[in-house]
Protein 1
Amino acid sequence: MLNSLSGRFLILTVIFVMLAEIMIFVPSIARFREDYLLSRLERAQIASLALLADDMLSTELEAELLDNAGVYNVVLRRDQMRQLVLASPLPAMVHQTFDLREATAGELIRDAVLRLADPQARVIRVIGVPSLDAGQLIEVTMDTAPLRMAMLDYGVRILILSAVISVITAMLLFLAVRVLLVKPIKSVVGQMQSYAAAPEDARRIIKPTASVRELHEAEVALQALETQLTQSLRQKERLAQLGGAVARVSHDLRNILTSAQLFTDRIEMSEDPAVKRMAPKLVNSITRAVSLCENTLAFGRAEEPAPALTLFNLAELTSEVLEAERLAIGEDDISLSEDVPAGMVLRGDPEQIYRILSNLVRNARQAIAATGQSGEISVAANIDEDDWVIQVADTGPGLPPKAREHLFQPFQGGVRKGGSGLGLAIVAELAKGHGGALTLLRSDENGTCFEVRLPMGEMN
């Protein structure tokens, strides 16, 4: 119980209530002491009235009056005269004098604490103002033992009452905390455990019901988190299923393309000039398709294979990419241009760099074609300090905000309707495999520009 929230709250409540009672206890004891001394002054004044009425009181009656008043002697000052009205022998010298006429709260509290801490009986002198203006002052001497006993008795009763109040208060607060906080928190914990058992089940997502504002905000945040997690798990499951399907299709497609590759030798032997001109491109396309299928199968097992680094001419590779895209343009009014130095040699995987450029150019072409307007796509390259820099720019409509938020995430960064959003994700991963990065430089109503930076490293 002590390790629970409600148990600790109960203990803290008892402690704080007791501390509050102690803060009240000290002034209460001081007030009790003051009232006690004032009552003794009033009794002494009443006792002195008997003597003032009859000067011939017997010694026995005088002693009885002093005993009833609880004092040893009484001194009155009337008409500027100080008079010893009642007197009896003192058991000891006067230890201390207390003047209640001008005593401050701090002095009363201090004197009360000191009196409780001093167990020895003392004889003290107390000075005060007589009741009903029956003189200038009244002064008595008295024993402190009865005063201390009365203070202790009063203090014990106050402490017992404080303990009872603190326990009752703590129990009420304990029940209130359990109902208002602990029970709702346990409900949230139970829901979290239920959701953890089957996070794919959307029916187990929490529905905020708490009336406490802070707890309600926590439930709303938890609901958003669980909803996002469930969607992510579902997406990952679909991706896993899709990956299995793609792997099977790629496996069969690779076999088909391998068979088609066997016939390209005969096509290359044709005497037709047009066939001779197109045959190498067909061979390259089939080779790339077979390589893509093999890489897809490798991706299904782990991730994109490490690039096979070699030196190649980037201008020639760029020309191949643009020529393949020109065949896909058809009747669209889209122009392609390149600004790549003819002798620029890049160290990388030619197949993967081809896929990088092909994906970027294809995305740009499809974005422009979707508008039905004319446009231009340009591929430029240069060497910037220690990097090869390739930029693919277009004059298309720019990327929508949603596509920018999930730009390089598979199945989320698609721009076209029905698009998968895999193109940029593949480009980013291939660039990363070369130690480089894909960056969106700009995207607005004037067009979009992507930049691929590949580190040069050691040229060997």
Note: The radius of gyration is 50 Å.
Protein 2
Amino acid sequence: MRDLREQLLGIIEKNSRIDLKELAVILGVEEVDVVNELAAMESEGIICGYHTLIDWDKTSLDKISALIEVRVTPQRGQGFDNIAERVYKYPEVNAVYLISGGFDLLVTLEGRNLKEISSFVSEKLSALDGVLSTATHFILKKYKDHGTILAKKNEDTREKITP
């Protein structure tokens, strides 16, 4: 069953929209086994959600992403968990990671423009008790996200001329 789970997770991580019948065929099991295994992993919290990867640069919507490094003072008995929870509760925040290195947390968020993100960092994030400093990095272009290449090169469609 563990091998089935690992194979199933590997496939749906790349394509969560794959048809259940097709999954069953690929894995060599019955469709009901796939359905039951997915339901079990959802209830166990192994599968936490299903998401769509969107290249926002190809839409008419204004959206910008940023990575914010945050240095904090850990709390006795709680470590970084309480401050991480306060940060991830903001709707602007997409993800919060505990990281190694010179900073403690890495926060990803989205906004409509640079000013909106800068305001969030200065007025909300930096103002939290326990936050010592932040460093904001705006994402200017995404080349690959969640294993998907977004910046594909345009292939030369001209006919090659050889002597």
Note: DSSP finds five helices and six strands in the chain.
Protein 3
Amino acid sequence: MDIFSITQPTGPKVPIIISSPHSGTFFPDDIKKRLRPNLAAAPDDTDWFIDRLYDFAPAMGITLIKANYSRWVIDLNRDPKSKPLYDDGRVITGLCTTTDFNGNPLYEYGEPDDAEIAQRVEKYYIPYHLKLAQLTQEMKQEFGKALLFDAHSIRKIVPGIRPEPFPELILGDNDGTSAWPQVIETAWQALQDKGYEAQHNHPFKGGYITRFFGRPQNRVHALQLEMAKTNYMDATETQYDEANANRIRAVLQNLFAQLIKAIEE
């Protein structure tokens, strides 16, 4: 199994990359056999179908990269030293987490030790991040700038993170530091008045990918969009819902149309 899959643009190429680091569902056999079988069969913290939701992007000239391995193998959107991204009391799942978002144990036996975590970093984490670095630098060389858009989803309610339901759309830019102000404003305005509740940098302001790659002073921008799974899945948040998905896809298509204009100006 490849670490990641890349879908190249089919339309005229633009300097935007969409990253989906949490939509993978594959487990190596040596890890899967140690996990609780019911959890391994349907890893609930997965950003299910995000790659399908964004499959309109190549026709707009956008490059897609999707991780193939589950975030329970290694979380590609965490600090490589497992430094927490938030300190507000929420459940923090680490680089090679041993619990889900609600603190439930994942392993029946054989939780990874430091040596195994280091091996997973070498085998799975570093290749994905090197590819992101390569793609952004190639975009910058070709266009003079690049935008890395990190695409995520989450259950509407996750008590381990907060008791209240999440907003439907959450734009993250590390408190305004991961992209030019005009890029951030373009994205934020494109999410307004579309029938979805949107918030900015709360309760998520971008994970490690957004914070690490967003270097607007070097003309490399990064944004994260977290969304409720109810935006594009059924009420159980387990099945893709075509009608729901088509509504939010229209919002996303407009978002990227506006971002293409902003990044090219």
Note: The radius of gyration is 18 Å.
